[in-house]
Amino acid sequence: MTKKLLLASIVAALGGLLFGFDTAVISGAEGMLRDLYDPQYAALSNTFGNNAFWHGFLVASALIGTIVGSVIFARPADRYGRRAVLFWMGILYFVSALGSAFAWGAPSFIIFRFIGGLGVGGASVIAPLYVAEIAPAKYRGRLVAVVQLNIVLGILLAYMSNYIIAGFDLGALEWRWMFGVEAVPALAFTLLLFTNPRSPRWLVARDRVDEARSVLEAVGTDSGDVEEEIEAIKESLAASKLSLREPFFVKKYMKPILLAVAIAAFNQLSGINALIYYTRRIFEMAGASGTSALLQSVIIGGTNLIVTMAALAVIDHFGRRKLMLVGSIGYILSLGATAFAFYTDTGGPVILVSLIVFIASHAFGQGAVIWVFIGEVFPNSVRARGQALGSFVHWIMAAIISLTFPVVAEISGAHIFAFYALCMVGQLIWVLTVMPETKGVPLEEIQKKLGIE
User: Fold this and answer.
1) Could you tell me the CATH number of the domain that includes residue 181?
2) Helix 3-24 crosses helix 106-134 at what angle (to 10 degrees)?
3) Are residues 448 and 335 in the same domain?
4) 244 in a structural domain
5) Number of folded domains in the chain?
6) Could you list the pLDDT tens digit for every one of the 453 residues in the chain?
7) What pTM does this model have?
8) Distance CA 227, CA 434 (A)
9) Are residues 190 and 255 in the same domain?
């Protein structure tokens, strides 16, 4: 692996880290924001909804931005280049961090979090794409996995940052610092992108072959022959143009479409985004103090990172279906125990252990499997659109879960975890009866199994 390739991949992976940080940072501040903006919610509630609904909307505003960002940046990335769009992702992160920190009311906070969500949505698509296009095939899987792993690391760092800031006893300024610190890595990411090369695939697509040749000489190729690599890129681009003419929502692709929609929906019906966004509140509902709740959030984030690393190491050995089975059973047991603890007022220790099992189940199952599985069930001609569909359903469901959690939790914390557990019973039945195993199966064989001619 060349030094240029390694450094470029590290910088792109920083975009994944910011993705995770931006997603999770609100978990430490949402209780303070609820108390601060409650009078403003009251004015809105006279027209529609209640205070809990509007607080859920404020928390979910970043996810709404993520939905939009995941679909609007593909064309700019094709026109202006992956690196240029990643640069604007960095700007969006920076503006969102400072804007959220200096927000002067609920509407301004929602706008700046939405801007950050645009960055998250764009980065979720463009960062892995950029790394996949600059890396030789023999390193591609590992380097793209680093981007995904950095998302989980970013979540852990957000929890740790929140815990450290809470230790300074900053009072009313505490939540502002929680959001503001993200501006530092966002600025670093933006500036470091100037050292990254452009995607050779994009350069060839724009007939800038000499520049593509220079990039390939710097990052390396599989065969060691730059000219051979350029010809392969040209053939791939020609095939991509043909695939765009292939209709997507037709009968022969219905099975992979339904599989992608199902796994993406189940991913969020587990309540994973409720845990990530409302970690501190969940532990406070169970009786933990503010600082203790933040420390327990760090434990959750650390478990997520460690088990994600373990799952990525074994996914090609055990297979996708076995990981999903283990994860589903872990979901049901942990969510059922959490609901039981809230129903019986058992207390914090049981809930902490249950949620550690929950996050481990997610990281080992859905967290490791979802994007690999969606990519495998679609044939080459429509794979990009299949991945986009899965991503869209995933973020839509994430927004719904984050929006509804405060409303239902205000009625009963036990009810909402019981609902998530019931949904995971549905996932277990789906895995046992519908989900095909794709480990080690040639893509052509998968297509035959799904009835795709």
Assistant:
1) 1.20.1250.20
2) 150
3) yes
4) no
5) 2
6) 789 999 999 999 898 899 999 999 999 999 999 999 988 887 776 666 678 888 999 999 999 999 999 888 888 988 899 999 999 999 999 999 999 999 999 999 999 999 999 999 888 888 888 988 898 877 876 787 788 789 999 999 999 999 999 999 999 999 999 999 999 999 999 999 999 999 999 999 999 999 999 999 999 987 788 999 899 888 878 877 766 677 888 888 999 999 999 999 999 999 999 999 998 889 988 888 878 889 999 999 999 999 999 988 888 888 899 999 999 999 999 999 999 999 998 877 899 999 999 999 999 999 989 988 888 888 877 877 888 888 889 999 999 999 999 989 888 889 999 999 999 999 999 999 999 988 877 766 887 888 876
7) 0.90
8) 45
9) no
Q: What CA–CA distance (Å, rounded) separates 78 from 205?
A: 9
Is residue 236 situated within a structural domain?
A: no
Cβ atoms within 10 Å, residue 73: 24
Tokens 């996914």 correspond to what residue? 315
Indicate whether 203 belongs to any domain: no
Residue where a domain stops, chosen among 196, 218, 234: 196
